[in-house]
Design goal:
The protein is α+β, with helices and mostly antiparallel strands and about 250 residues long. The protein contains 11 helices and 4 strands; from the N terminus they run H-H-E-E-E-H-E-H-H-H-H-H-H-H-H. Helix 1 runs parallel beside helix 4, helix 6 crosses helix 9 and helix 7 runs antiparallel to helix 8. About 40% of the residues are buried.
Length: about 250
């Protein structure tokens, strides 16, 4: 099991903290910038939001100066944000091309590269200091409930499963392993969805949310075309044979 003081995890967390500093975001605050616009506009990394095979969450394609991020269009914006941050972690940490199933993104994994990308995304969007501060300030030492988890996730523009992953990778007041196991069971049962609906939780109004709600989908930047999308689809199918009969990547006409 990874720990925060593992050297490769410290490297990933430091890289995320450095990126936050580059854009003037304090270490205890939610990530307030438009992640899609920042990734493409300021960091020069094109993001493609496509209907990929259903087993694929995203991909990072490293091609010298022409690297790309690919995101599953069917996912909710909160999930897409974490996946973009995850793929951005691969890019900032110098990793090679990777195609990712849902077991890689925001889940426990034995792959050190995926561990790094997950910790990078968590620290970028849900910084340890900020989450600790919210819990201490809001709950006063009480153990968080599923309702608290939904509210905490909303505060940091994240999904409850992503926030629960964040809680499993640090020390927080009132949070222990039995509580985490219970919350995971409740998330698997979909209890967070009903609570989010009751609370009127919205998924945001940034570029990712606008595309999800209004399109265009698929969404391709000007720097990629159908031929490039086809090459990635070939790599996806080679890496994940079970996806061979699923719906293909499609570029906008």
């Amino acid at each position: 099991m990874t720990e925060l003081n593992d050297p490769h995890i410290e490297q990933a967390v430091a890289a995320a903290a450095e990126l936050r500093r580059e854009f003037g975001i304090a270490g205890d605050l939610p990530f307030s910038l438009d992640l899609l616009e920042l990734t493409e506009g300021q960091l020069g990394l094109p993001v493609c939001i496509l209907d990929m095979p259903s087993s694929i969450a995203g991909a990072y394609l490293r091609k010298g100066r022409g690297s790309f991020i690919f995101i599953q269009a069917e996912n909710f914006p909160t999930r897409q944000r974490f996946t973009i941050a995850h793929e951005l972690g691969h890019h900032r940490l110098g990793h090679d091309t990777v195609l990712e199933s849902y077991q890689d993104v925001g889940r426990d994994t034995a792959d050190p590269r995926e561990q790094q990308a997950n910790y990078f995304a968590s620290e970028l969007l849900m910084p340890l200091e900020g989450v600790q501060s919210w819990i201490a300030r809001t709950l006063s030492g009480a153990a968080p409930t599923m309702t608290d988890l939904v509210r905490l996730a909303e505060e940091f523009h994240a999904s409850p499963p992503a926030m629960l992953y964040r809680l499993s990778k640090g020390e927080y007041p009132g949070v222990d392993r039995p509580l985490l196991d219970r919350l995971w069971d409740e998330v698997k049962a979909g209890e967070h969805l009903a609570i989010a609906d009751q609370l009127g939780v919205e998924h945001g109004d940034d570029s990712i949310s606008q595309i999800f709600d209004h399109g265009p989908r698929p969404r391709l930047p000007r720097t990629i075309d159908q031929a490039a999308a086809d090459r990635v689809l070939g790599a996806v199918r080679a890496a994940f044979p079970e996806a061979a009969n699923e719906e293909p990547l499609e570029a906008a006409s």
